[in-house]
Design a protein that fits this description.
Blueprint: H1 3-35, H2 38-76, H3 80-97, H4 104-127, E1 129-131, E2 144-150, E3 160-165, E4 168-170, E5 173-176, E6 178-183
Parallel strand pairs: 2-6
Antiparallel strand pairs: 1-4, 3-6, 4-5
Length: about 180
């Protein structure tokens, strides 16, 4: 036999085997179709459609829940960027109020600044801003930033001795941790 004849014979053998496989698969499909009545086929299709509908409904419910949670978070923290920009202003305001004037005019000016400061603090409180408690508290790395460690009598280990810069929270989120000295 020549090489060409051998190749042709192999192709015919492969085609014959494929025909046998296709015939047996078709027979099995017909057998399955014969076994399943049209009612059963419809019931299966209805069950499949119900499953798909339930999955789509669950996906939609999850989407609605996530969207609602994102909107609530956005509304809850909507003022965060403005307040973060105002924190240095608050610090400077507090430093200005620490000045002890001697002249009568300066005292009345300071009194007016104190009234404005209290009003400003009240507005921040209404927005959900809280000052983080420090002196006498136990150091919490989530709320405080330790910049110094000192040895002070009257304070326990890891207790805050002094506040160097106020820290602020917006509801449950820390805007700026308080800078503190901690007892060793």
């Amino acid at each position: 036999m020549t090489e060409k004849e051998t190749h042709t014979l192999e192709e015919e053998t492969i085609e014959a085997k494929e025909e046998d496989v296709n015939t047996s698969v078709e027979a099995e499909v017909e057998e399955i179709q014969v076994e399943a009545s049209p009612e059963e086929v419809l019931k299966q299709e209805v069950a499949e459609l119900n499953n798909r509908l339930l999955r789509v409904q669950a996906d939609y419910d999850n989407f609605r829940r996530r969207s609602r949670e994102e909107k609530e978070a956005a509304a809850k923290y909507r003022s965060q960027t403005v307040i973060e920009a105002l924190l240095p202003v608050i610090d400077n305001f507090e430093r200005a109020l620490l000045v002890k004037p001697e002249a009568e005019e300066a005292k009345s000016l300071l009194q007016g600044m104190e009234m404005v400061y209290r009003q400003f603090q009240e507005s921040l409180k209404n927005e959900g801003i809280e000052v983080i408690e420090t002196v006498g508290q136990t150091f919490d790395p989530h709320l405080h930033q330790a910049v110094m460690q000192v040895e002070e009598e009257g304070f326990e280990s890891n207790q805050i001795v002094e506040e160097l810069q106020k820290g602020y929270k917006l509801k449950d989120r820390v805007l700026r941790p308080a800078m503190v000295k901690v007892n060793a």
